[in-house]
Amino acid sequence: MLQATAIQYLRGYEGKPMSAWVKNGTLSYKAYKDGKSDRKNGLPNRYLFPKFWYESNACWGWVSSIEDLREKMKHQTNLEDCGIFKAKDEFLDKSFQNEDGSLDFGTRREHFGTKTLREFLLENHVDINKL
Predict the structure, then answer these.
(1) pLDDT tens, residue by residue, 45-59
(2) Rounded to two decimals, what is the model's pTM?
């Protein structure tokens, strides 16, 4: 369902005629309209999760869904897994972007950029309350 919504959102980006594939009042119609509106306003895609790399002593790997992020947070807040944080807020506020500006976040020494993981997720319309 989410993938279909994302595809329809992208079709909104392309400006294809919606009458061929979506009905007024459906979630697909909303995704199409949001896609056109976001493109016009220069905003990121609000229906696709932004893929990024996360690295720390406790865990590392690609994060491409809210479930992946929840798993990384679980490791970072579990002291038995070498976790260093006590709560979700610490995880989001003390995980920084890599110094080179790439989509690489974490707690290792190269992660001392100015953007926190929380700021990145909010910029990309990720609901952090689902963590």
Answers:
(1) 666 778 899 998 888
(2) 0.62
CA angle 9, 13, 18 (to 5 degrees): 65
Tens digits of per-residue pLDDT, 108-119?
A: 877 888 899 999
Q: Would strands 60-63 and 52-55 be described as parallel, antiparallel, or unpaired?
A: antiparallel
Task: Find out whether 50 and 122 touch, Cβ atoms under 8 Å.
Answer: no
Q: How far apart are CA 105 and CA 102, in angstroms?
A: 8
Q: Which residue has the tokens 């038995």?
A: 80
DSSP letters along 87-114, please? Answer: SHHHHHHH-EE-TT-SSEEESSTT---S
